[in-house]
Amino acid sequence: MNIITRAAAAAAFLAAGADVRAETLRMWGPEQITEPLIAELWNGIKADFEVKNPGVTVEFIPPTGTISNGAVQAALQSDVGPDVVLTNSGIGRITVVKNAKQIIPLTAYYDERAWKDKIYPWLFEELKGQYAGEIYEVPDGLDALGIWYHKDMFAENGWTIPATWKDFVTLMKAIQEKSIQPLAVGPRTPGSAGHLFGNLLQSASGTINVGKALRGELAWDDPALVVGAVRLRELVDAGFIKKEMAGLDLDGASRLWFNKRAAMFVAGPWFTANARKAGYDLNNAGYLPMPSDMAGEAKPTGGVGWSWLIPSNSKQPELALKWIDFMLSDEVMKKRAQHAASTMIYPRELKDIQPSTRVLKEIFAVAANGVGYNPSVYLPADVTDTYFQVIQGLVSGQISGEDGMKQIQGKMVAVR
Amino acid sequence: MAGVQALDDTASGAAATAPPRKWELIPAGHGNTGTAFWLMAPAIAVYGIFTLFPIAVTFWLSFTDSAGFNTPASFVGVENYRKAVQDPIVWQALWQTIIWLIYHVVLAGGLGLGLALAIARLKRSQVFFRTAFFLPHLVSLAVVGVIWANIYDPFFGLLNTGLTEIGLGNWTQGWLSDPALVLFSVNVASSWQGFGLYMLLFIAGLQDIDPALYDAAEVDGANSWQKLIHVTLPGLREVMTFVMSLAMINGLKGFATVFVMTNGGPFYQSELITTYIYRLAFQAQDHGLAAVLCILLSLFAITITIVFNRWRARMAR
């Protein structure tokens, strides 16, 4: 009897111990975890976290998509979804899950856990201004979208980096004469459509005007803003962007660029991952902001590219907070920034860090002079669909720049 | 014992004199409605949970501003219906759904019939062709979408490259970018996946036609075309109506290939009601308006079914 009692007590103890150990943090992300380099980086981070938190297991959920295509929302609604989410963000996307009460506000933790000191002050201010002081995300990386080009192709043909819009058009004419596509775009992937269009708006109208339009202070069909859309249509009409590209997605358009059938492509630092996957020599990649005739407005566009979110139905909210602390630590951020799989600009200044590729260094240098808005991530969620469809309409030659911007403005008014 | 025997006789006699009424599932004397109810209960429960309940919820959602299951929804009356009526994309998507349905019936149904006619008379190789043509039906529509999107790639795709290689470079198109072509192009992919099933049904129908009818037609001097028109097609009438119903249902369900290949673009030119519902419900989290479109789609399906059934009844007379 005594033996049985002791055995039962031992079993109960072990079971209780097992319960304590059975803590699993399920994380939505990271993207492209199937890539060996990315897997190596993230498995290392996971292992470090597990060592620091005995009994905790981190489980990655390879993303099936983003907020833009509804994948994150579906995962959260399932109620067996992730405990912490790393996904493409920006106010437009975050609003969707915030309005659906699928994520919790994190404002208090910015002070409590000193997250405020771990991101750029301007970034904190920007986040605070989005929902009347409430913050729902923790930035993981920033985007800086600009023009990627082939250094060898430019050198062989004697093409130089254009300084003005006029030079840029002249360059595209020269490229076209060599039977090479001047610009590739894959608007079937909404983001890709937005990358190019955001660059064009920035170049033609400048950061202040685009910012005003995003805040509803300037109409999208105002002549000051229509120029970018008109330019896109002009590029299409001149054949610098083929109408057929309206049927391409990001991969299809990238393929054109990797195979050097296109000379330029608008993308961000994350494109290094695509390039590596395609076997492209990253030493041959050059980066420049979209030329502008407005002084100081030749800037990449971007904003918060990726963020951490904590779902309302997270089974491990405390662990999720610990994980975010860990990700914001110097140890992890520096490790990520120097790793070959690094594909983004980090949310705070990291001193004495050498980016793993030359093109990333170029991107960081250009972005240091300032980044304009990428409207895809700043527009209200209800407007983004119209915005992307309008870009498709422009690329496929179905609508004029003026009509397209009128449609965006109409949607903005309806939403507001 | 005699008493028991007498009771049995009475019971069987009663059963014999009173035949079961039409609505009785189990004839009297062989069970009771209570037993019948319990036997059907699992099926009723499944139907209730997975069909009736979602219908009721959808109907309720259409009068709310629901943004998802985690949010409290307020009653907004017919606001979502007003929004739906005033949304030009709803009407465009509805029209394109009709075109999509017609394409599917003609392309998938037509190809199924054509191939069935072509291989039905084959003896040795019929199994091979039947299997080969049916194989696409086993591939998921999402995968079909990816395959065909690559075939249609304007720069590297099999179609445009192939046309150029054989000297028909002028025929190359932006299959997924040309507003006039995109819906047709995506439907070809969808129909390619679907025709195999229709072909099998037509083959089964062809095998049911009495060979003596062909012999008689031959004796009367009918040529192949006349035999097709006067023997084969009338003999396939029942299968044809079944295939048409099936193709219409599948056409209305069109979603995956559009979602994968064009996501409704460019500029809404391949938007279907189903893709727009998905966009509203799961991307914009506007469950109220999405629910209205679900109801609209259901009413559309019911209308088509009624019209089709009336037409079929008239044809049968």
TrEMBL record, chain A:
InterPro entries: Bact_solute-bd_prot1, SBP. It is found in: Periplasm. Belongs to the bacterial solute-binding protein 1 family. Part of the ABC transporter complex UgpBAEC involved in sn-glycerol-3-phosphate (G3P) import. Binds G3P. This is sn-glycerol-3-phosphate-binding periplasmic protein UgpB. Keywords: Periplasm, Signal, Transport. The complex is composed of two ATP-binding proteins (UgpC), two transmembrane proteins (UgpA and UgpE) and a solute-binding protein (UgpB).
